[in-house]
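Side project, low priority. Logging it here so it doesn't get lost.
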Amino acid sequence: MLSAIAGHLAPRLGLTAICACAIGGAPCRQAETVELIFLDIGQGDAAVVRSPEGKVALIDAGRGAAVVGQLRAHGIESIDIAIASHPHADHIGGMEGVVTSMPVRYYMDNGVPHTTATYIKLMRTLQATNVTYLEATERTINLGSVDLTVIQPPPGGDLNSTSVGIVVEYGDFKALLTGDSEVGELNYWLERGVPDVTVLKAAHHGSRNGVSPTWLNATKPEVVVISCGLNNQYGHPDVWALRYYETVASEVYRTDLNGEVTILGRRNGDYHVQMSKGKTTAAEPRTEPAPVTTPAAAGLTLWVFADAPGNDHYNLNGEYVVITNNSSALMEIGGWNLCDAASACFTFPAGAVIPAGSRVVVYTGSGRSDGASFFMNRGRAVWNNRGDVATLWDSTQRMVARYAY
């Protein structure tokens, strides 16, 4: 439907522009940060990337017309590139209003048509404008001094799992936005390589099918942002998905609790987070007791992922325990035991260690241990979904850490 406006571009597209200078010919003074704004648009996605030079990318546009007013509240009157991760209404519903309200230079989507009136109206509006259409092929787009790298979706699949992925890069600061990608698409990208990032937008509004341990181990986010509506009918974010994110990321934010979330990233990887409401961390309050430690193992903490996707007994490696060494010293754990409340135990092999600032994962099922991942080789699930206690004992049977849930 967009063939009339589709244009061929080189794999690397430049959107660099000259910045505006002060009256009187004073030198340009560019901001030192990239601005990443997760708009509070209810149950949906809409994010803005603004480069130090003032160039703007809009990634998804929520469900309704409110996004136009929010953009203008940030002084945005034109869009250099608008990207629709996929054509569900909670991602493109506001895009037609954006295109008719302000100049949009380029438009990109996943190339998968939809039958809804929202999608058809948007396509007709784009055809009637001077917007240049881009295919979501692997390419890097220069947004001033910020690079947007397109992660191409896999062929086939439903609309969620053909979402366009975008890596935002400004020096050492990196962010990754993945639409409503589900685990199948995330695994497809993992096979091709994904970077570790500073900021990760939780896929599919924080649903359970939008996250996996391997995905988080690869991306290693410091900050996770979940875009969802307050008390939404889908139950987003999922409580177990939140536990996944909280174990890896230092900070987790939610637009339903924190409103608009703005992250200012510097070239050296430092960042600053601003919220329109809520507390400095959006993670759900945790009621579990603090880990109990001995002086010899101070700094070790446990976290249990008990509720594996599907039937726990048929997805044994979907439940696991994370042991984190938060200290500045290597911890030798050979001969130590990890046990549940029913005394189902795993003994770490001789020579096992946890380097300072690192972690190991103990899976219930079978696999090959590599020093970072260990396997209990159990035939049935160990960790009770309704509550259990994980205890780590050292080789002298002293309790090192405990986690109850």
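Brief comment: Helices lie at 66-73, 89-92, 95-101, 117-127, 183-192, 213-219, 239-248, 255-258.
Revisit when time allows.
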